[in-house]
Specification:
- The structure holds 2 protein chains of 2 kinds.
- By secondary structure, chain A is of the alpha/beta class.
- Chain A is about 25% helix and about 25% strand.
- Chain A contains 10 helices and 18 strands.
- Chain A has helices at about 95-100, 160-165, 175-195, 205-220, 230-245, 260-265, 290-300, 315-325, 330-335, 340-345; strands spanning about 1-10, 15-25, 30-35, 45, 50-55, 55-60, 65, 70, 105-110, 130-140, 145-155, 225-230, 250-255, 270-275, 305, 365, 375-380, 385-390.
- In chain A, strands 1, 2, 3, 4, 5, 16, 17 and 18 form an 8-stranded mixed beta sheet that branches. In chain A, strands 6-9-10-11-12-13-14-15 form an 8-stranded mixed beta sheet.
- Chain B is about 30% helix and about 25% strand.
- Chain B contains 12 helices and 16 strands.
- In chain B, helix 5 (about 180-205) packs across helix 6.
- The chains are: A alpha/beta, B alpha/beta.
- Chains A and B meet through strand 7 and helix 8 of A and helix 10 of B.
């Protein structure tokens, strides 16, 4: 057991923010309180003057699948590939995994579909790039620690899929066709689902179940569709799709979501915003703004922030939250957007995202402001183990400089 | 207004702020006096009796306007798709006759975005498609007219190595090179051509017969060669998109052979030969630093690269390469290097201001808060390198060009 004593704790959970202690047993949090007496045999670490947050969560990332130009995150050979799974492209040798952990990012959602491109005209993407997963940024041998293997199905609307396929005879060349392809796949999945109900095990068409299995789970409400959208028109199309098939959706990027904020709030549709510091590149990003998080918060829309790694590296996530604070977002809301809200949106809220009894002991100890460059990270704990900092007991050091924290 | 009043200079005092002059130590609760667009005085206790207007800046921080030495503002327009870009004239790998100035939309929202981030001056480059890409322009982000905004025209000749100049294209009378050797050969060819043209011109001037030499070539070629002569004469530097020591070593040879001046643009791996570059006096316009591993030419990128260069004696300035990183976030480039590279705020701030001014050849006018320099500065809610600090107001030539009106004491 380990007792961390005397820090300012942003629990990001029901206990709010308090000055107190955290007790950790094994991989889990046993208690958080203003006063905790160390149980017999527990190690005690005095972290007075420090700030503790939950491990940060990057809700939309291509970590491990887009390294040094080796694009493994999206098939462009077909217009829709709902049967692909992102973990089949994951490379545990990506050094960015360690960077993410060092920056306090302990959980990420991996989506198929490419990062936004700085130099090229389009990113790699198709209309249904495949299935997403949630991992922790720790490796177990050559595999990441998988928090949720089947965590969602990625879809993409708008200019990007249009442009990727603009030269191909199959199209799509218009948004009409993008939507038609998705509807076609969902209808086929529903048909397959109905057929399953009347068949025994032997009658199942295994190729079809590969192709439609994940989409069927979306139709059954077991998985959410995570839809890449920027423009209002594409957000509207996503809402229409949700209505038509009665499916749960999450809006990814959601550049113009603030303009439909009231509706999103009343329908309780969540967004994963960003990367919010991207430039106003092209018509789709014409209205990107650092003020969007503040506007969504005001309207009551639940949102998380993303880095879209490697569009921006994962470890810059807390700085995006800081920029949102600068542009009017409430500080604790900004923290929630990279902790509990992110966990809830990506479906792992029962395990991570807040510091409370029974949750995974994933936390970051900060010296200074967690959401600014003026702060430094002294230690990162994941599953109850110090993976960065605090390895030498009692000595606080900062991983970026190797210097001792004052 | 009577004649006597109109002759009198108008003075504004900014009082109560923490002032970061960059070339001298920070001043707490300082005063900055501006007279007709020029900094007239700076210090803790400047007398205020003769001042026309006093602006309350207590709790704020004043820093010089930031300088982005490598951007494509207005030439890659905001909010439009790539088809609308005017950045790369990729008709041929050699286009020394084009000028960035002729492709810039001065009403582009990118200039407003620069002010939003406290950036007041920048060099706007043609793109990196071509080995010799065209003339650069140094401008201020705002001003009463385009002419008044121009700081230096031309500010350099854009060139590009490796990923830029080296492309696979064909069909033109000038096929694009696809090796670094090919890039070097094209550059040498045009430097030799320019030398010959210059010699021929001198002979013509000495009264020899006209018609055979310089005047027999096409207007387009002459335009290009005239611009290349400015490079040969060291009136402007070659500003060379380059990433790795392979590029830099050839550049050093060419510098030696032709005696030209050059800058390294991007220079992700320049830290690997920091001492040599310091000795050769080649500045590095470093960045944009993102810090991920998306592309292979960032394989050796490291967060303290700019610091290694600077500490070896290289003049280093940051760049956004806008719109690669929005120009608003120039200072965030510095924040990242401070946070992830372990730099000190003062040395980082120099890379955002005075070093850029030196690289532009304009450090007598901009880049620091000193008496006699242009009154270009931004007022922040906190230290400019903290991401949560907001830009409250920006002044260029003593005129407020961004932000709400500040509280007047007098």
């Amino acid at each position: 057991m380990l007792l961390l004593r005397g820090a300012k704790i942003y629990t990001c959970g029901p206990q709010g923010t308090l000055l107190g202690s955290i007790l950790i047993k094994g991989t889990k949090i046993l208690a958080v309180a203003e006063r905790l007496d160390p149980p017999d045999g527990a190690d005690v670490l005095d972290v007075k003057g420090k700030i503790i947050t939950p491990g940060f969560i990057d809700a939309h990332s291509h970590l491990g699948t887009a390294i040094y130009g080796e694009q493994d995150s999206c098939e462009t050979s077909q217009v829709a590939t709902p049967h692909l799974h992102i973990l089949d492209s994951f490379d545990p040798m990506d050094l960015s995994i360690a960077d993410a952990l060092t920056g306090g990012i302990t959980t990420v959602m991996l989506h198929p579909g490419g990062p936004q491109s700085f130099g090229k005209i389009v990113e790699n993407i198709n209309i249904i790039p495949g299935q997403s997963a949630v991992i922790k940024t720790v490796l177990q041998g050559a595999k990441p620690q998988v928090l949720k293997e089947y965590a969602g199905v990625k879809m993409a609307f708008g200019e990007h899929p249009k442009r990727v396929f603009s030269e191909k005879a199959t199209g799509p060349h218009t948004r009409m066709k993008v939507i038609a392809v998705i509807r076609e796949y969902l209808y086929e999945a529903r048909k397959w689902l109905n057929e399953q109900a009347t068949k025994n095990e032997n009658g199942v068409n295994r190729v079809k179940s590969l192709k439609y299995g994940a989409l069927a789970q979306v139709l059954q409400g077991k998985l959410k569709a995570h839809i890449h959208v920027h423009k209002i028109r594409d957000i509207q199309a996503a809402l229409n799709l949700a209505d038509e098939f009665n499916i749960s959706i999450v809006l990814e990027h959601a550049t113009e979501a603030d303009q439909l904020a009231e509706e999103l709030a009343s329908r309780q549709i969540s967004c994963v915003l960003g990367p919010i510091a991207f430039s106003r590149r092209g018509t789709e990003l014409a209205n990107i703004s650092l003020q969007t998080p503040a506007r969504l918060a005001e309207a009551g829309v639940k949102f998380a922030l993303m880095t879209d790694h490697p569009t921006y590296p994962s470890h810059q996530l807390p700085l995006f939250a800081g920029m949102a604070v600068r542009e009017g977002l409430d500080y604790e809301q900004a923290l929630l957007a990279i902790t509990r809200y992110a966990a809830e949106i990506i479906g792992v809220g029962d395990r991570v995202g807040s510091l409370e009894e029974g949750k995974d002991a994933d936390l970051v100890v900060h010296d200074g402001d967690p959401l600014d460059v003026t702060g430094k990270i002294c230690g990162v704990m994941c599953n109850g183990q110090w993976l960065r900092g605090y390895r030498d007991q009692g000595i606080l050091y900062d991983w970026t400089t190797g210097r001792e924290c004052k | 207004m009577n004649k006597l009043n109109s002759m009198k200079k108008r003075t504004i005092a900014f009082v109560g702020a923490t002032i970061l002059p960059v070339t001298s130590p920070a001043i707490q609760n300082g005063r900055l006096l501006v007279e007709d667009g020029i900094i007239a005085a700076i210090g803790p206790d400047i007398p205020l009796d003769e001042v026309d207007e006093i602006i309350d800046c207590s709790g704020m921080t004043i820093a010089p306007g930031l300088i982005d030495c490598h951007a494509h503002v207005g030439i890659v327009p905001e909010r439009q798709d790539w088809e609308y870009s005017d950045v790369n004239e990729d008709i041929s790998p050699v286009t020394p006759y084009v000028r960035a100035r002729d492709g810039i939309d001065f009403n582009d929202i990118g200039f407003e975005e620069a002010l939003e981030g406290g950036v007041t001056s920048m060099i706007i480059h043609p793109g990196s498609s071509n080995v010799i890409g065209g003339l650069d322009l140094a401008v201020k982000a705002a001003g009463p007219s385009i002419e008044k905004r121009i700081l230096r025209d031309p500010a350099g000749m854009k060139m590009a190595w490796s990923r830029g100049g080296q492309r696979r294209k064909s069909g033109d009378s000038y096929p694009y090179p696809n090796t670094r050797m090919g890039v070097a050969a094209i550059l040498r060819e045009w430097l030799v051509k320019a030398q010959d043209y210059k010699n021929q011109k001198n002979q013509d001037l000495e009264g020899e017969a006209q018609g055979n030499g310089a005047s027999s070539i096409s207007a387009r070629e002459r335009m290009g060669l005239e611009n290349m002569i400015q490079v040969l004469n060291r009136e402007i530097p070659a500003r060379i998109h380059s990433m790795t020591p392979v590029d830099f070593r050839t550049m050093l040879r060419i510098k030696e052979e032709f005696g030209i001046e050059m800058t390294i643009e991007h220079g992700d791996e320049a830290y690997l030969m920091a001492e040599e570059l310091a000795e050769a006096g080649i500045p590095v316009i470093y960045g944009p630093f993102v810090g991920d591993r998306r592309v292979s030419f960032w394989r050796h990128a490291r967060p303290d690269a700019a610091l290694i260069l600077a500490r070896a004696g290289v003049t280093v300035a940051f760049q956004t390469d806008h719109p690669v990183i929005p120009i608003r976030d120039l200072r965030i480039q510095g924040s990242l290097v401070m946070r992830f590279g372990g730099g000190e705020p003062d040395e980082i701030l120099r890379m955002l201001t005075i070093n850029g001014a030196k690289i532009m050849g304009l450090d007598h006018r901009i880049g620091s808060l000193e008496v006699g320099k242009d009154a270009d500065f931004a007022i922040y809610t906190g230290h400019p390198l903290a991401v949560q600090s907001r830009v409250e107001a920006v002044y260029i030539d003593g005129q407020q060009v961004y932000g709400d009106k500040l509280r007047r004491i007098q």
